[in-house]
Amino acid sequence: MVAVLHTLQHCCINYLRRYTTLLHILEICLQLGVRTVTVFAFSLDNFKRSKNEIDSLIDLAETKLSELAHRRHFLVETQTQVRFLGDISRLPTELQNRIEYLQNLTTFHNSERQFNICIAYSSVAEMYHAFQCCCATPNATSVTQHLFTSSNYPQLIVRTSGERRLSDFLLMQAAHANSSILFIDKLWPAITYVIFDILPYICDHTSTHARTRTRTRTHTH
C-alpha cells in the first residue's frame, strides 16, 4: 500500500489541482503493481474551519466524486474498488449518498486493488473505534483487524509539503515494521516533481514484494 499525506491549503483552487494530481498518481501506482493507494482528503479537524470554507470544500467534494463516477471506466478496467475511510456520518446527506453510490459502483468480485479516500478521518478516532469494537478481547491482532484499513499495512507513507509529521494519519499502521515514511519538500499539486521523488521508492517496494512472493512460492512448493 502507498499512503499519501499532504498539507491542507485554504484555497479551493489547490484542491482542484490536487484532484488532477491524485488521478495521475493513482494511475501510475496501479500500473506499477501497487494494489492499494490511500489518500488523506479531509480531516475531522477540518470541521473546525469556518462554515463558508467547510461548505466550499464539501461542494467541491460532491462535484469531484460525481466526476470520478463518470470516469469510472479506468476503475472498472483495473478492477479498483473505491473505499471511504472515516466518520462518514459527519458528512452532509448528499455527500454520503455520492460516497455510497461510488462504493457500490466499484464493488468487484475478488478485487485485489483498492483506492482508499480518508474523509472525515482521524487516526486517533480510528484507533478508538477499533478498541471499542474489540473491548472484550483487546490485543494487537484484534485491534488491527478493526482498523478502517484492516490488516493492510502501508509499505510506503509519503508526506509532502516539507512537513515532518504525520498529522493524525495512519498512526498505528505506520508503526508496522515493514512501513517506510518518505518526507518530501514538494507541494502536492506539483505532480511531476512528486512522481520523480516517490517513483524509486514505489519501484523498490514493488520489486521487493515480488521477490518475497517468489521466494514464498518456491519455499511452499
UniProtKB/TrEMBL annotation:
Its EC number is 2.5.1.-. It catalyses: n isopentenyl diphosphate + (2E,6E)-farnesyl diphosphate = a di-trans,poly-cis-polyprenyl diphosphate + n diphosphate. It is an enzyme of class 2 (transferase). GO terms for molecular function: ditrans,polycis-polyprenyl diphosphate synthase [(2E,6E)-farnesyl diphosphate specific] activity. Pfam families: Prenyltransf. It comes from the Eukaryota. SUPFAM superfamilies: Undecaprenyl diphosphate synthase (SSF64005). Keywords: Transferase. One of its GO terms (biological process) is polyprenol biosynthetic process. InterPro entries: UPP_synth-like (IPR001441), UPP_synth-like_sf (IPR036424). GO terms for cellular component: endoplasmic reticulum. Belongs to the UPP synthase family. This is Alkyl transferase. It comes from Lygus hesperus (Western plant bug). The lineage of its organism: Eukaryota, Metazoa, Ecdysozoa, Arthropoda, Hexapoda. The gene is uppS_6.
